[in-house]
What we know:
The chain has 5 helices and 10 strands. About 25% of the residues lie in helices and about 30% in strands. The radius of gyration is 16 Å and the shape is globular.
Amino acid sequence: MTQSPHLSVIILAAGQGSRMKSAMPKVLHPLAGTPLLGHVLNTARKLNPSDLAVVYGHGGDQVLEMIKGDDIRWALQDKQLGTGHAVDQAMPKVSDDHTVLVLYGDVPLIKQETLAQLVSIAADNKFALLTVHLDRPTGYGRIVRDAHGVIQRIVEEKDADAAIKKITEVNT
Length: 172
């Protein structure tokens, strides 16, 4: 299997998962006998990245104990300061010429084909973001676009005003 020489994958796995009401890190909850993070790693590996980083934090010792792989570069997020901060923890060792694919460690059903298409769109210094329209987008970050349809920002539910909460396009 040849590696994609210009692809780095960063998987965010530092969150507490407070909605799961469990002391176990959410990325370790099993689905079909495999931790959620294990499914995401398996799918990411099918893309043959030359760099595979996992950002860990909450329950880090448990995550490091349960998830194995010589191909994983671990990046610690000591303080939970948001998604951008989590990505920053892995970025210093990413080559400047790489396309970077950021995944969430608690989204186990994402398909290789979907990710391959997203990486293809993002190649050549473009930006690509996987979004979806939901009838009831409560709890998700809203995609705010300008009059030309260009993404301006992602506004999390807790930071959204009434107008932004009406947006149905969300960050997956």
